[in-house]
Design a protein that fits this description.
The protein is mostly helical and 119 residues long. Helix content is 87%, strand content 0%. The chain has a domain of 50 residues.
């Protein structure tokens, strides 16, 4: 096998990816990392089971974080909408009408797809 394969040919790419898979030190490192993560997860879960108040506090904090993220995204959408309106208002009327119609069509299409996926 070639050590430095870089021609981009399919066989060379396959050989390179096979060499990467056969690197045992990388596999051992990843497996060890997964084991450590699992052990930490088990310890944290045990700690939470032993302290219902702390478990509830964590649940509340995560709920608050998700609510804050949702509020942040809503604010970003408002900023985006205001910026779009500002940009549109700076255009000549005929260009504004055409672009507005394109935006309405695009948004309608996207909302339709979202609605279909949610049903």
């Amino acid at each position: 096998m070639a050590e430095n394969v870089s021609s981009g040919e399919p066989i060379d790419v396959l050989l390179k990816s096979t060499q990467d898979l056969l690197r045992p030190e990388e596999l051992v490192r990843e497996a060890t990392r997964d084991l450590v993560k699992d052990e930490i997860r088990r310890h944290l879960e045990k700690t939470l089971k032993e302290d219902p108040k702390l478990q509830q506090e964590l649940k509340d904090a995560v709920r608050d974080l998700l609510a804050a993220r949702a509020t942040e995204y809503a604010a970003l959408l408002k900023v985006g909408a205001a910026t779009a309106r500002l940009g549109l208002s700076a255009l000549p009327p005929e260009v504004r009408r055409a672009l507005t119609q394109e935006l309405v069509n695009l948004v309608s299409k996207e909302l339709g797809q979202i609605a279909e996926r949610s049903l």
